[in-house]
Amino acid sequence: MLAYSQLSYVGQIQNVDFGTNRADAVLFRVEHRAPDLTRRWYLAPEALYGDSIISRGTMEYDVDVHRNRVVVARNDALDDQIAFDDNFGLLLRNYKAELAPDTSVAGRRAFQVLLVNKYTGETVIRLSLDAQTKLVLEKDRFGSNGSVTSQMRFEQIRYTAVPTQVFDVPSGFTHVRGQDEGLPSNDLQALVKTAGFRALGPKYLPDGFLPIAGELNNVKGVRTLHLMYSDGLRTVSLFENARGAAVDMSRYTVHSTKLQSRDAQYVRDGPTTLLAWSDGVLHFALVGELTLGELLRIGASV
Amino acid sequence: MTEHLANQTLIDYMHAGLGPEQDAHVYAHIESCAACRSDYDAELALTDMLRTYATRETRELPSSVKAEIWERIRAARPSPLRNLADWLRPAVTLPVAAALALGIYFGTSYLGPHGTAPIDAAYYLQDHAALNSTVPFSDRATANAADLESSSASKPQNAVAVTASYTAGTNP
């Protein structure tokens, strides 16, 4: 068997996000040369056809042929082994891995592994790993009601050498500097102190959830604190600002609800729900792949 | 020989999740019980396999690209002249005027005390996805300026990861 880090392959992948009433599918060709060169070339939907993303280590080049530009960004978080190990440890504390009967994906025999939440007994992710190479050929993510919320699946795969020229960034495009993702550190208290307002956090989190990361952003001149909580697989983000900047949901179908006695609004974007409200001083937005009921409970505890 | 260990006990042992006494018991047991040792090794191998995959090899669509798709779909709207013509029809203008009046009356409190311009919901969705990148089995989202430029001018000032010592119930 090839060492995992030595696998090179070409294939075609279909990603589907299942929303409440519709599914959004994206089809792309993937070329990967070990250890860290990858190109995704989009075939569908039409709006993306011809675009590609070239990853060279932590650098990403989004080739946008429609606007004749390449957006260049660095994501150091991908190389942050310490943060990754912490979060993988969190996953292992909250989930157990169970083997399911073998299956076949893209003509290859695959092991199936279920990641089951220890507290709820729910299967959150099902992985199908190539029996020979251990590459994940299919990944299904399930919602709390058991429905599939997203699926990644290789339609075709062939293990082969891929020439390095494939991963060259094409010339003749305007280069635009994208937003770099910095390395996380472990100083949440310092972050909260620099927020410039008295930040609040939730007193309730679902079983197994802990804060894993945070950042302070300047959005349209409004200092916005972003705290992220996770159980190792599922995540929820709490955003807050003290400048009275509410959430513009005009591009979405907005639903009204109550957060205890406060008015709140929420929108759904595929499996993700955004819940927004204000306590009169701070404006909050809670974003996550949890149920609305769980988000409301978290929000009510802030 | 005591009875065989439950699978969950082996998993908890592997993740150092047992108390000292039970931990010592499991250690002694798997030293002497081939069946439990085999189960334990299988769990170790499975975990190792997952870790290997989760470290690097997600081949999903970055959230930034999903956002881009929707940005383009939303941008593909009728021309401004066509929109204006549609809006000037009496059947539209009257209800819109009424809605605007209600919006102004009820909406000011939602804008907040300072009347600051609202932040696009897309920003929150994309930033949530971007910070997901160290979570195992995430889609390795990479937000970029192109995705955010339509809704906000965002620049991260600081980023932190939080150790697992936090307890729910205390404000950060």
Describe the structure.
The complex is a heterodimer of chains A (302) and B (172). With 302 residues, chain A is mainly β. Chain A has 2 domains: 174 residues, Lipoprotein localisation LolA/LolB/LppX (outer membrane lipoprotein receptor (LolB), chain A, Clam), CATH 2.50.20; 113 residues, Phosphorylase Kinase, domain 1 (2-Layer Sandwich), CATH 3.30.200.100. Helices cover 10% and strands 50% of the residues of chain A. Chain A is built from 3 helices and 20 strands. In chain A, the strands form 2 sheets. Chain A has a 12-stranded mixed sheet. With 172 residues, chain B is mainly alpha-helical. Chain B folds into 2 domains: 50 residues, no CATH class; 86 residues, no CATH class. In chain B, 59% of the residues lie in helices and 6% in strands. Chain B contains 8 helices and 2 strands. In chain B, helix 1 crosses helix 3. Chain B starts with 6 loop residues before the first helix and ends in an 11-residue tail after the last strand. The chains are: A mainly beta (302), B mainly alpha (172).
The CATH superfamily of the largest domain in chain A appears as Lipoprotein localisation LolA/LolB/LppX
Could you say how many structural domains of chain B there are in total? 2
Largest sheet of chain A: 12 strands, mixed
List the secondary-structure elements of chain A in sequence, H or E: EEEEEEHEEEEEEHEEEEEEEEH
Globally, the shape of chain A reads: globular
Helix and strand succession of chain B? Answer: HHHHHHEHHE
Total number of helices of chain A = 3
- The CATH C-level name of the largest domain in chain A is Mainly Beta
Give the helix tally of chain B: 8
Mean pLDDT of chain B: 61
Globular, elongated, flat, extended or rod-shaped: what is the shape of chain B? elongated
Structural class of chain B: mainly alpha
Quick check: average pLDDT of chain A?
85
The proportion of strand residues of chain A reads: over 45%
Low-confidence stretches of chain B: 101-114, 140-172
- How would you classify the helix and strand content of chain A by structural class? mainly beta
